[in-house]
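dumping this here before i forget
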Amino acid sequence: MFEDFVGDGGLPPGKWAVEKIRLRDIGVKMKESKFSEAQVVRILAEAASETCTNAEVCRKHGISPNTLYLWKRKYGGMETQDVRRLRELEAENSALKRIVADQALVIDATGKVL
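structure:
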């Protein structure tokens, strides 16, 4: 699917961010999580408790052990408010990257014109 939009996929290193933004603009989206931030924090707290094993927690919530370990690595020790703030910061970072990519396109276009 990615090759349909960028041809052979052989992009120069500086152009990857621009193409990624273009893919997002045309509607290519990642799959959304079926768990909210609060649910992830609750599941991690349950896994951290000594009442049941990680395997039992995974079976109970229908997640794979790999997902649990990824969540632990990303959200370990966070509260629900911390996870929400992390999401806000990621969204802000994405917007700033978009601005930088747009400016890079303008600079590249003006360089070619001159």
